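User: Predict the complex with nicotinamide-adenine-dinucleotide.
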Amino acid sequence: MLKGRTALVTGSTRGIGEAAARTLAAQGCNVMMNGFGDADDIEAKRSQIEADSGSTVRYHDADLSDEKQLDDLVDSTEAAFGRIDILVNNAVIRYFHTVDDFDRDNWRHALSVNLTAPFFLMQRVLPGMRTLGWGRIINMASVLGLGARGGRADYVTSKTAIIGLTRAVAAETKMEPHITCNAICPGSVLTPNTEIKISELAKADGLDFEEAKAQYLLRRGQKTGYIEPAQIADLIAFLCQESSMDITGAAIPIDRGRSATWLDGADG
Ligand code: NAD
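Assistant: Here is the predicted structure with nicotinamide-adenine-dinucleotide placed in the model:
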């Protein structure tokens, strides 16, 4: 259990971040949610998580590409809860262009949300964690931090870099055994974003949704099914336990063996 801890989970208004907020709150954490979406919908999720867990759950609408808003997110979390024990860098923005067609402003935007914001947030929370003598940082990477697909240069670059950044922070905190920093590398998780991509595939290829859902996985070499957001949330919560204090600097795949078997079927 994580009673008395405070978790800041970026991009927690839907998908994996929402599941992480729910699971951490259920384990006793006070939680600061963040991300975009319909205000009524976000408030409904926040109050439901609070009611279900009995933990205090707040929400801040910071746009992480804006440094002032990012700082305000940290200040507001500390003002509300007095501390930040757990940081989950989960928010993401994705553009889908080849390198040739990538707009420079979109590139800067993606890198600012996916890489620079996690860096600034870690910079902000680490001093407090050192004072507390305890901290957990979980950076959401991806199988696309371990290998590439075409048309995903912003994503592949930021997810690969965040694994390096995770190791860099682990190196700088390794003499503080109760502070850990790890990356999680999921395969395809059935989140609202994935459902949008499946619908696009269905439309483009004239498939019904269920056919497209199966095709989407097949084309990614993850043949046995989708991962649920709650499973990623459970891994995040596991990394926050006392018993996980010896795991730091890791990039942990949770991908049904996808990244371990990329060479299956290759010649030689
Ligand atoms: P999602 O697209 O459903 O949600 C992204 C969240 O980030 C939302 O809450 C959104 O409002 C927020 N966000 C976007 N831009 C923001 C900004 N500028 N400032 C603040 N918040 C912002 O994402 P998801 O599919 O749940 O993925 C969550 C994480 O897991 C991401 O880091 C993603 O790269 C990683 N991941 C997801 C999958 C998958 O299959 N869904 C696979 C591998 C890795």
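The first helix runs from residue 15 to 26.
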